[in-house]
Amino acid sequence: MKIKLNKIFILLITILVISGCNKDSKQSTVKEVPVFAVNTTLAVEGQIQDYITLSGDIFAGSTVDTYSEAAGRVAELYVSVGRRVNRGDPIAAVDPSRPGMTFRHSIATAPISGTVTMVPAQIGMMVTQAVPLARIAGGGGLEIRLSVAERFVSRMAMNLPCTITLDAWPGEVFHGSISEVAPTVDLASRTMEVRVNVSDTGSKLKPGMFAKVRVITERKNNIIKIPASAVINRFGEQYVYVVEKDQSNPEFNIVKKRIVTPGILIDGVVEIKSGLSPNEEIVVRGQTLLDDGSRVNIIERVTPLRDQQ
Predict the structure, then answer these.
(1) Is the pLDDT reported for residue 141 higher than 90?
(2) With 70 as the cut, is the pLDDT of residue 28 above it?
(3) In whole angstroms, what is the distance from residue 262 CA to residue 280 CA?
(4) What are phi and psi of 175, to 5 degrees?
(5) Contact indicator for 122, 74 with CB cutoff of 8 Å
(6) How far apart (Å, rounded) are the C-alpha atoms in residues 244 and 296?
């Protein structure tokens, strides 16, 4: 009886071992599908613009110096910096008298209406007809004079829109447009002068201020744009990964490789001429290890791009 029990016990152990081996072999044949962590965003339809950043000084649109008609000593000054004058208003009196000869004072008058921006003359100072007594800024608005490097000359044109910022008014953006393009390039500096009219300035901008100007050289509307970091350039192909639902298991997301044709690239934003539609979800981070059909876990959805200001 004892021998039979031992045989039964050995048989049961054998069956359990065999069944355990079969279970392990079945588990070993099941492949684990890797899941990649990614950040995504949406392709958006909007505006993109290319520009050149330059800097220059603000000048009065029309500035005229006032001169005396006679040489002599400045006897009186009737204006000061910042004063508003009309055409014909007296600026200074010049005494042309000589030893032994007395003459009436010569009155220098304002040639235009505007604001006095500089008074280099002083009472008692000797002047000639070539020495300016005062400088008057007319009402022709303000302009910014820019020096454009030779490599950018071909991109300059009349009426190109500009945005203007100043350290004096942080956070504020002013607007203008190119009003004059010099016909020649300076031989010494290899730069060309461009003038920008400033509009809607109110009283905030003043001659002599330093301005940073962004000249908009190209602007496109209703285009598809995405972060440039989403585009992969590999083996002569440029493509992005678009997020889709896994058809075999809708609980998971997968990515599909999509060939795209980039356009303008500016400030980390790229125009997509073909290959994407608005509101398609694309991978912007974590795409280096992906392949077509890879399963992904979306860690963060980045805020879509906005139009440039």
Answers:
(1) no
(2) no
(3) 16
(4) -125, 155
(5) yes
(6) 10
Across the range 137-141, mean pLDDT stands at 72
Strands 35-42 and 295-301: parallel
Tokens, residue 1: 């009886």
Q: Other C-beta atoms within 10 Å of 79: how many?
A: 20
Output the six-digit token pair for 105: 């004072």
Burial 46-67 (b: 16+ CB within 10 A, else e): bebbbbbebebebbbbebbebb
pLDDT band at residue 82, thresholds of 50, 70 and 90? confident
Domains of the chain are 35-47+222-301 (2.40.420.20), 51-60+141-220 (2.40.30.170), 65-137 (2.40.50.100)
* DSSP state, residue 268: T
pLDDT of residue 25: 45
| CA angle (100, 105, 111) in 5-degree steps | 145
Strand partners, 87: none
CA distance readout (Å), 88 to 30, 61, 81, 82, 110 = 98, 20, 17, 17, 5
Percent of the chain with pLDDT over 70: 88
